[in-house]
Amino acid sequence: MELISGLLAFNFIVLIHELGHFVAAKLAGIKVLEFSIFIGPKIFSITRGDTTYSLRLLPLLAYVKMEGEDEKSESATSYSKKPLAVRAAVIAAGPFMNLFIATVILSVVFSITGFNTTRVDEVGEDSPAAVAGIEPGDRIVSYNGMRVYQPADLIQFIYVEEGAPAVIGIERNGKKMKLNFVPEIIPEKEVYRFGFSARSAEGPDSNVIALVSPGTPAEKSGLMPGDRIVKLNDTEIREKRDIDSFMLENRGKPVKMVLERNGSRITVDITPAAVKIPRQYYVGMSFEFDSGSVLRAIRHSMVFTWSTIKNVGYTVVWFAKGKVSLKNLVGPIGMVDTIVDVVEQGVNNIDKIIRLLNITAFLSVALGATNLIPIPALDGNKLLLIAIEAIRRKPIPPEKEAFINMIGFVMLLAILIFTLYNDTIRLIFG
After folding, report:
1. Which of 18, 69, 122, 239 is catalytic?
2. Helix (H, G, I), strand (E, B), or coil: what is residue 200?
3. Other Cβ atoms closer than 10 A to 185
4. What is the CATH number of the domain that holds 224?
5. How many Cβ atoms from other residues are within 10 Å of residue 268's Cβ?
6. 166-199 pLDDT, tens per residue?
């Protein structure tokens, strides 16, 4: 079921993108030769007006073929004969639709689930955040000059900088300040875990289970979201750091865990499993949770979308600087696999639907923003060529444009092969 959901979500993202091009072309009076769902050999087609609507064999991707887009045409309904502004609007409509739909979906999700803001809720004692001088109520603004729009931005920047000392910008009582910040580096190691994530990283709710991972000791022992861990063997548990301290001593030995569930205490037997975790970075602060009115949810969905767009731009720079490996690139298979993994973590059908909507929206923003990068084969390159034509005040010679398009096709094919290789390796070896 999750695999089908993943395929549907991925194709929805691509279909929305192509639908943007299609609708804009139709409104501009451009003849659309074909609108195809999926790729490969044709299974079925029907012609309505000037357009053939096709269903193809391989259940991935979609495309729109416009008259005069890739071949010479003198027709008044040709893409190449339309004014520059119209052509630019048709090309930009695909990425715009991805961003618009994502914002709509996120507005619904955030109004249901709420969201974390960049305002600090709690700071752990003697933690890196405390040492830096961060206090509850501060709003995190930037990290090494990069704007922080949501807590996930901060975590991403720390990982990309590999925990190096940084300057963190905060806002306190209306005044902006800069503080020196050094995350604590936790080396790669083998640890023992029950298989759940806590409701918060610090504070009184950090011993409350938020998510139980499938196939883990926590799931097998019947732990549920909302359970509060109050005792491990004879050790009283008040927050997550008590659990961490206990696990350092206990390691993989069987444990009697006492839980509070719906006002009652229950005891379960559980044996933690060995897990190898990569290097991590400890920050030592949690962020304020906003239960989210509809208007605040809409605003945060716009902030989330803009944040993701900027992070796509940062990622291009990080690739160029070697801070992010090309091995991190994902293709269609990787995107579907990511969606499936996220949905599988849902504890019930409603949770799975919310997770599906969330990851679909995120990938829709990522696809839309990536398509605006001005490299051959992407919409951003077509917009760049239109801009060059506007500056030159004359069309780019057809042979040069054809050469650029050929380079773009080769690059697209190379990237597709590379990402398919990456995706396959990840599926086989994890």
Report:
1. 18
2. coil
3. 14
4. 2.30.42.10
5. 16
6. 999 999 999 999 999 999 998 888 889 999 988 8
Picking from 425, 75, 114, the residue whose alpha carbon sits closest to that of residue 288 is 114
Pick 203 or 293 by higher pLDDT: 293
* CA-closest candidate to residue 5, choices 354, 326, 423, 382: 354
Cα 314 to Cα 199: distance, rounded to the nearest angstrom: 30
- Pair of tokens at residue 194: 């029950």
Residue with tokens 């299609």: 22
- Are the beta carbons of 285 and 134 closer than 8 angstroms? yes
Does some domain include residue 273? yes
Contact 135, 123 (CB under 8 A): yes
Distance in angstroms (rounded) separating the CA atoms of residues 182 and 163: 7
311-to-39, 209, 305 alpha-carbon distances in Å: 30, 30, 10
pLDDT tens track for 310-340: 988 888 888 888 887 766 666 666 666 667 6
Structurally, how many domains does the chain consist of?
Answer: 1
- Residue type (1 letter), 141: V
pLDDT at 326: 64
Residue 398, pLDDT score = 64
Over residues 106-127, the mean pLDDT reads 93
In a domain, 353, yes or no: no
Q: Annotated catalytic, 125?
A: no
Structure-model confidence comparison of residues 340 and 151, the more confident one: 151
Q: Take residue 21 and report the two structure tokens written for it.
A: 């091009």
Q: In this model, does residue 408 exceed pLDDT 80?
A: no
**Token pair listed for 180:** 């020196």
Token pair 């991590």: residue: 280
What tens digit of pLDDT does each residue of 83-95 get? 999 999 999 999 9
Whether residue 259 lies inside any domain: the answer is yes
Show the domain range for 246: 189-277
306, 302, 317: which is closest to 373 by C-alpha?
317
Which helix (H) or strand (E) segment holds residue 190: the answer is strand 189-193
Whole-number Cα distances in Å, 211 to 198, 224, 225, 345, 349: 7, 8, 5, 8, 14
**422 within 8 A of 331, measured Cβ to Cβ:** yes
Structure tokens at 295: 């208007």
| High-pLDDT (> 70) share of the chain, % | 88
DSSP-derived secondary structure for 310-372:
HHHHHHHHHHHHTSS-GGG---HHHHHHHHHHHHHT-SSHHHHHHHHHHHHHHHHHHHHHHTT
Q: Which residues are bridge partners to 185 per DSSP?
A: 281
For tokens 């991935």, the residue is 60
The reply to whether 101 falls in a domain is no
